[in-house]
Amino acid sequence: MISLLWAAVLVLAGAVVLNLVLTFAVIRRLRESEGTRKPAGATQGPAAGDPVPAFTVTLTSGGTLTDRDLPAGDATIVFALPGCAPCTKVLAALPGTVPTFVFVMGEPGDEGTEAVLAKVPSFASAAVIADDRAFGVEMFPTTLHITGGLIRKVENGVPAGAGV
Questions:
Q1: Which of 41, 103, 137, 164 has the smallest number of CB atoms closer than 10 Å to its CB?
Q2: How many other C-beta atoms can be found within 10 angstroms of the C-beta atom of residue 57?
Q3: Would residue 78 count as lying in a domain?
């Protein structure tokens, strides 16, 4: 009976030691990952007040669009991603009151990319961009409200009242 109790104590002690080793490994990983995180409040991607970066894209209609082609007044650029449900909601909620451009980050001809393009409103011009880091956009959907070549407002995600 005593040998059974000693065996139980040894098993429990082994479990405690293993638990401590795993806990310290998780703490070390968390400390390492915190060093690579952006500080709270750091902007991701384009920010209000930034100039629109130089770009040239081929529109799905066959023409090209550059930063110099944007209207002198207001315009909207939406960045969408295949398989992104919030992106679809943003596209459905676009008012169409200003020139609107939708940049789909995907591969031309891909089924997911084509599904997003099918949701682009008829008043908007669309382009497919293979580089999903273009313009520094890191969140999808991202909507840029532009006035006179400057980014006036940035919306990440679905804005309030967009049917969510």
A1: 41
A2: 19
A3: yes
